[in-house]
């Protein structure tokens, strides 16, 4: 309809020029000052707050006696050549430390598991023809809050389940995600709707024959993409009501 056709051209209001910089925490002040222009400052603050919201897994407020967490879902779009979307990557340091710590911890866990499996296999070789070693050791649960953009909805559910429902996805190549999820966009939309209300998720995934049950979904998403990909995502999820859950920003198009 006409309202939808005009929609992507009406996100022009800014907020960064209406706040007091001295009220921001030091980490956000440096990000705020790293770019010029209200539109670009909005871009950086929204990206930063969305990243931070993905790690605030124990921070919540009460609304109608229900816990609501501060997970944000942000969609930023503009033509690649003029959006300066690469600047969004400069906010990665806000979450990199936690992600790197998780990667190192997971390496230790898998190293220990490999050692246990080696011992299990050795027992089988020394059993004089009898396999008395029992069942193979169960693989450990690998936790990582950062979820890759090039993921199927099944892999997202799997990773969120390992994290007790928490996680974040941040990408400046959102069109890759849209392409990846075209066939199961319904499951992705449902996942974001679960997250918006931090609802209980009970989901069976046919592709891997697995059932996932999580008390609350706490999933933050930051997607930056060209207008064509943004329109495709909106059209694919329009009947799911997802559009009303997203913070949408049209990035400034100046090259300065």
Key terms:
256 residues; alpha/beta; two-stranded antiparallel sheet; 8 strands; disordered N terminus
Structural account:
By secondary structure, this protein is α/β, with parallel strands linked by helices. It has helices at 2-7, 26-32, 38-53, 80-83, 93-125, 153-162, 174-181, 185-196, 227-237, and strands spanning 60-63, 66-69, 73-77, 166-171, 201-205, 210-214, 218-225, 247-250. It has a four-stranded parallel sheet, with helices on both faces. It has a two-stranded antiparallel sheet with strand order 1-2. A hairpin with a 2-residue loop joins strand 1 and strand 2. The chain is globular. The two termini are 34 Å apart. The model is unreliable at 1-9 (pLDDT under 50).
Present the secondary structure layout.
Elements: H1 2-7, H2 26-32, H3 38-53, E1 60-63, E2 66-69, E3 73-77, H4 80-83, H5 93-125, H6 153-162, E4 166-171, H7 174-181, H8 185-196, E5 201-205, E6 210-214, E7 218-225, H9 227-237, E8 247-250
Parallel strand pairs: 3-7, 3-8, 4-7
Antiparallel strand pairs: 1-2, 5-6
């Amino acid at each position: 309809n006409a309202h939808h056709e005009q929609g992507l051209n009406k996100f022009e209001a800014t907020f960064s020029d209406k706040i007091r910089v001295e009220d921001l925490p030091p980490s956000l002040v440096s990000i705020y000052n790293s770019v010029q222009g209200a539109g670009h400052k909005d871009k950086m603050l929204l990206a930063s707050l969305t990243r931070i919201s993905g790690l605030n897994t124990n921070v919540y407020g009460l609304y109608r006696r229900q816990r609501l967490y501060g997970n944000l879902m942000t969609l930023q779009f503009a033509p690649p050549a003029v959006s300066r979307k690469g600047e969004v990557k400069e906010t990665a340091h806000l979450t990199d430390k936690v992600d790197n710590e998780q990667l190192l911890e997971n390496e230790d866990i898998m190293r220990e598991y490999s050692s246990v499996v080696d011992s299990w296999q050795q027992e089988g070789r020394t059993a004089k023809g009898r396999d008395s070693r029992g069942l193979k050791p169960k693989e450990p649960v690998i936790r990582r809050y950062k979820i890759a953009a090039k993921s199927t909805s099944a892999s997202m559910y799997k990773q969120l389940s390992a994290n007790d429902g928490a996680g974040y996805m941040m990408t400046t190549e959102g069109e890759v995600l849209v392409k990846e999820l075209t066939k199961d966009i319904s499951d992705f939309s449902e996942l974001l709707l679960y997250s918006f209300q931090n609802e209980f998720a009970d989901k069976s995934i046919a592709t891997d024959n697995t059932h996932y049950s999580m008390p609350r979904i706490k999933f933050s998403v930051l997607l930056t993409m060209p207008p064509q990909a943004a329109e495709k995502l909106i059209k694919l999820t329009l009947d799911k009501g997802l559009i009303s859950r997203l913070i949408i920003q049209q990035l400034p198009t100046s090259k300065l």
